[in-house]
Specification:
Layout lengths: L3 E5 L3 H12 L3 E6 L2 H7 L5 E4 L5 H6 L7 E4 L5 H13 L4 E5 L3 H9 L4 E3 L5 H9 L4 E6 L4 E7 L9 H4 L1 H4 L2 E8 L2 E3 L13 E7 H9 L2
Parallel strand pairs: 1-2, 1-4, 2-3, 4-5, 5-6
Antiparallel strand pairs: 7-8, 8-11, 9-10, 9-11
């Protein structure tokens, strides 16, 4: 992946992406309008700045045009993700990766120029094919040669256990950044929540660990 990355929006997903890329030696700037989030991440990225990602003037003051990659990590605020994507494309960012929460959201982001979409609702046919093939893995997205995001159906031995009990960071060296339940993508996760049958977990981590988890699925 290119060396200069800006992450816009510091929810659970944005925080995980920004800090993981920084750990890989990539120059990362993290941006959010919430000062507390900036304060929390400041020592875990190259630079952190408070700013409105939907304001072109604010983004230009951060030198948005100097970044090789912009990751639009806000998803629940669809209008904000669209505005941020437009600003990044208009500013000449080479690659814009945007998070979507639904197929319609993903289509809009693609139409306005997003180069890559993460977290869209997966194609029904692809899910069906994978399900019929007996695989729990629904999607694997590689951000770089070192770093992947995967969506995976809950294993039988995970059901009824909480994220605290399962401790994915220790067991699989992967971080849970969200999960889908009953068609809804949940990002603000209570670690004490029990995993249910049919849940789809979204994890992020090294390609090697993602592949290892894929093989177990």
């Amino acid at each position: 992946m290119e060396k200069n990355v800006i992450v816009l929006g510091l929810g659970r997903f944005g925080y995980a992406v920004a800090t993981k890329l920084f750990e890989k030696g990539i120059y990362v700037t993290a941006v959010d309008s919430n000062y507390n989030k900036i304060e929390k991440i400041a020592n875990s990225v190259s630079s952190a700045a408070q700013g409105d990602i939907t304001e072109e003037v604010a983004m230009k003051s951060l030198g948005i045009n100097n970044y090789d990659v912009a990751i639009i990590a806000t998803g629940t605020d669809i209008e904000a993700s669209i505005e941020a994507t437009l600003i990044c494309k208009d500013s000449g960012v080479d690659k814009v990766i945007a998070k979507a929460t639904s197929q319609s959201h993903a289509r809009i982001l693609k139409k306005i120029g997003a180069d890559q979409i993460v977290y869209p609702e997966l194609d029904t046919g692809e899910r069906l094919a994978r399900s019929l093939a007996g695989s729990n893995l629904l999607e694997l997205v590689q951000f770089s040669n070192d770093f992947s995001l995967i969506e995976i159906k809950a294993h039988e031995d995970w059901i009824g256990k909480s994220l605290i009990e399962l401790d994915f960071r220790k067991t699989y060296k992967m971080n849970v950044v969200g999960f889908e339940r009953d068609g809804q993508m949940l990002m603000d996760i209570d670690p004490s929540t029990d995993i249910r049958k049919g849940d789809v977990l979204v994890l992020i981590g090294d390609n090697e660990n993602a592949k290892a988890l894929e093989e177990k699925s």
